[in-house]
Write a structure and sequence with these properties.
This protein is globular. A hairpin with a 2-residue loop joins strand 8 and strand 9. With 413 residues, it is an alpha+beta fold. The strands form six sheets. A five-stranded parallel sheet has the order 6-2-1-10-21, covered by helices on one side. Strands 13-14-15-12-16 form a five-stranded antiparallel sheet. Strands 7, 8, 9 and 20 form a four-stranded mixed sheet that branches. 39% of the residues are buried. The protein has eleven helices and 22 strands.
Amino acid sequence: MTHSIRTVAVVGAGIGGLMSALALSRFGIRTLIFERDTPPPINVPPADSMTWRRKGVPQSLHPHFFMGRLRVLLEQNYPDLIEALLEGGAGENRIEDYVHPSVRQRFHPSAEDERLRSLNARRTTFEMIVRERVRALPTVEIRDKARALDLLIDDASAPCTVKGLRIDAPGGPEIVEADAVIDASGRFSKLAEQLARAGVHMDIEQEDSGIWYLTRHYRLRPGCRYPSSSGLPGAQFADFIVGALPADNGAFTVTFQIYQEDRDIVRALRDPEHFQAMCTAVGAIAPWVDPQTAEPTSDVYGFGQMDSFWRHTVLGNTPQVLNYYCVGDSGIRSNPKFGRGCTWTAVAAHRLAQLLADSMTPSARIRRYEQCLREEFRTDWETMLDIDRRTRAGFEIAAGRRSATARGRVGQW
């Protein structure tokens, strides 16, 4: 029996939730978004987006790269959104920006290169601009300070069927009935934990990269520009990788990727003065942190748990839960250094919206959705997992925790 989708409840107003709302609005499907954090401050321009602190998204202040595929998706469906992002100060990257000077004279651009243009901005900046558009949609309601407590489930049926949410809103607990629930609540999804406790079996593939990030925020001084470079400015050493990432409106970060067990370098980099000294000692980074060019705007922040993750709710060809869909980090993620998360999330949201608009059974819908995810992302996901393993092996060798074999020396990078 086919299941008509009229109302969808979305948990999380981050990129997954906002992209889901945009996609569902194209089909006229009523969308209720529940976000536990506070909304952006009123009348704050994108240049000051760091004043919006997203407690549930600690990486929200960091630069994010919105890859060519995501930009093409936005251009095709929401061209005014691209204009708003650029007007809000988002950066733009073209393929010729990454061509090394030694081959630049031999480089011949083609029309297809336009599909590889990407955008860069702090996530708070991106979300503020997209959120404004989503909030104006007639089929969408965003409810802030509303925390999803648990799913409404019929566990007497087989498979388990989701029928809505129970939320904790400013006015008190509420029951929200919905034809489908999209879990866009991120890597620490409580809804998936509830399903597991209810006996829903989901296969999980998860592997930590063993890498920590230590990051500091900077802003260009008035009249200064980002230093020129061929590709993203950075350098790779035996025991760490460092790179500068431009964001929007003159903001940028410098981030060190280090092995989490290398306590000496972790301790050293947590000291802002030592962090600055190490940046100055790396030729590719020194122009970015030159006091005449930029000034730091934060202390040094550490981030861990950079993992590869894949959640399967269809085992074999049998769905384990119906009307529950993961979009973004709650379902699939990779180490954020690869810059795929936002693009994968947007693509998945639009594939799912099309399936929710089509007439089919709930079982067929979830099977088709997870098939789409495999077709779209699986090859890249496995490639990036392999790169993380080799990077970790190289760091372990440099830290003296693993012996270097001939094969390892050749293949660690």
